[in-house]
Amino acid sequence: MLQQLDDTEIRGPVLILNDAFGALSCALAEHKPYSIGDSYISELATRENLRLNGIDESA
To answer: For 41, what's the count of Cα atoms within 13 Å in the CB-facing half-sphere?
Structure first.
């Protein structure tokens, strides 16, 4: 999926649904994605993954 997105010019907001560990959020961080999920544990995991990868979660 990420390879397919690399071949596409993204125009507009990026929405990520249920990113369990934040892998997509990290990979797509440059596009300032919106992430929606129903798990607080997933939110914590995403924040930690962003931190470990040196990505500002507010960026």
So the answer is: 1
DSSP 30: G
Q: Which pTM value belongs to this model?
A: 0.81
Task: Report how far residue 27's alpha carbon sits from residue 29's, in angstroms, rounded to the nearest whole number.
Answer: 6
The SS3 of residue 43 is helix
- For residues 40 and 20, what is the distance between their CA atoms, to the nearest angstrom? 10
The count of domains in the chain is 1
Q: Per-residue pLDDT tens for 1-58?
A: 888 887 888 888 999 999 999 999 999 999 999 999 999 999 999 999 999 999 998 7
Rg (CA), the chain: 11
User: Residue 53 is part of which domain span?
Assistant: 14-59
